[in-house]
Amino acid sequence: MAAPNNETGEEETTGHEWDGIRELNNPLPRWWLIIFYATIVWAVVYWIFMPAWPGITGYTKGLRNHSERENVAVALQQLESSRVEFAQRLLAAPSLRAIESDPDLLQYARAAGESLFGDNCATCHGVGGQGFVGYPNLVDDEWIWGGTLDDIQTTLRVGRRSDHPETTYTEMLAYGQDGLLTPAEVNDLTDYVLSLSGQLHDPEARARAEEVYQTQCVSCHGVDGTGDREQGAPNLTDAIWLYGGERSAIWETLWYGRAGVMPSFEGRLSEDQIAALAVYVHTLGGGED
Question: Where would you tag: which of 68, 110, 186, 206 has the fewest CB atoms within 10 A of its CB?
Answer without folding.
Answer: 68
